[in-house]
């Protein structure tokens, strides 16, 4: 493959990282991963002119790649009005003087260069980008086919598919409302076949979603693909329309609540974020904020949090899908204070939050839990499914399963109470009385949930273990009749 991956970091991407090229075309494709959201941004150039597809809000990562490669950005393309993150497209175009290309049918509040199905845009002297209408994820979704001048004339090279054709999957069709889902899922099937018919098998596929993003209808482990590979393996291209529609809709689960705020934010034209440090808070100030109902968020890993934390703080560790779950659970507009061991940890969290439209934390504190409270530390035990199996032989305990409903319905521990993690903040009072053992599919969500249970005055036990061990260790699992699927398929989405 041609892409050199620039991994997500709290600071901008490294300026010294070397890009890889396909010598025949002389093109460079840079992939900027935003792993916490399961998305990718692409920087493509021929050594002189560059284009960017679907940039995230923190555009300094893109600017550093452009500077490191010594190229000039001329065009920024959006595949669609995104629902899972705040775009950096407008700010990037304004910072560089590049044209900002957005579907002319999208209703937006800013000046853009409108683009339509079939339109071809020349980028530099050698690259051409053709817009292809691919509705399905949204009604106005566009994919972009890239061709390049070669020794035998214009050669198709790749297609940037946004939330249309993904690796082994497609973008989900239900984010615009239930009333549009049937029409969109059928559009999605037709759009995928349109791409397969118009592009050669060797054309590389570069989607924006599909790497843990809840914008993907299903999850895949693939990191690269071509049109030919997708034709052989992607259900949207191997199944008839009715089978695809039925199976995709049957498999859809819940999606993050913060998504409803992303479309309006992106249509309004987001500005560049302010990533400067926020004010420091001492233990007294942190206590005041917790007592006022604000969110004080401990960024440390779940083992450290369980061992000791400021009472009333919530645990969203940076080692998982921090921004996805915080954005999903929080009541929009609630003030957030960040607790990190280092200033770098807080900066990382701040960067992740601006990507979903939480622009400025109320405050921050660094150090450790002993610095964040004037009183006793809170704590709770952690355990494994083996421990749970053993304890259930001796006494009754409450098993709280915080996986999504679709996961729970696939396989669950007999007698477990299911309150999905995204419903727990408003339903924590429904947790039955008794000793509460909290589990998910891998441990991340269990720790988040345990922190809410603890903040409500209970003492939970957080099961820090893989759900696949539950059956191996003698815990009786209940499944739908005839279901033989792996209960861990889909697991925790991007937090694994």
Automatic annotation (TrEMBL):
Entry-linked Pfam families: Lactamase_B, Rhodanese
Low complexity bias (residue ranges): 1-18, 485-496
Swiss-Prot/TrEMBL GO biological process terms: glutathione metabolic process; hydrogen sulfide metabolic process
Protein origin, superkingdom: Bacteria
Region (Disordered): 1-26, 477-496
Keywords: Hydrolase, Metal-binding
All copies of domain Rhodanese, residue ranges: 290-381, 393-479
Any GO molecular function: sulfur dioxygenase activity
Protein's name in the database: Glyoxylase-like metal-dependent hydrolase (Beta-lactamase superfamily II)
Organism: Knoellia remsis
